Amino acid sequence: MLKQPYFMKNSKIYLVNGERFLTAVQNTLTRIVEFPQLFHEVEPNIRHARVPRFPYAVVYRIAGGVIQIVAVAHLRRAPSYWKQGSTRR
């Protein structure tokens, strides 16, 4: 009998967690659209909304009445690694 590779044994777990993460990010985006000023301002005109049950936050800014997503940032990485790509306006 062939032994099943490790990644295949756990692929269902990754799929379920991926779906949960995607749903949590989508729910966070919905909350941002409904209440854009609600979330903590981490820098001038830059806010972040935490993604429930995951160590991530959606980083965004409001420019001319439009919400611009800057990053979906991992909160346990270097705190400001996402800034490199956020300088475009």
- What radius of gyration results from the CA coordinates? 17 Å
CATH superfamily: RelE-like
User: From N to C, what is the helix and strand string?
Assistant: HHEEEE
| CATH class division | Alpha Beta
The main sheet comes to: 4 strands, antiparallel
How much of the polypeptide forms β-strand, as a percent range? 25-35%
Q: How many domains?
A: 1
Tell me the CATH topology.
YaeB-like fold
How would you sum up the global shape? globular
The helix count comes to 2
Mean pLDDT: 82
Spatial strand arrangement across the major sheet:
1-2-3-4
- Assembly of the depicted chains: single chain
Helix content: 25-40%
Characterize the structure shown.
There is one protein chain. The chain is α+β, with helices and mostly antiparallel strands and 89 residues long. The protein has one domain: 2-Layer Sandwich (YaeB-like fold). The protein is 31% helix and 30% strand. It contains two helices and four strands; from the N terminus they run H-H-E-E-E-E. A four-stranded antiparallel β-sheet has the order 1-2-3-4. A hairpin with a 4-residue loop joins strand 2 (46-51) and strand 3 (56-63). The longest helix is centred in the first third of the chain and has 24 residues, at 11-34. It is globular and about 45 Å long.
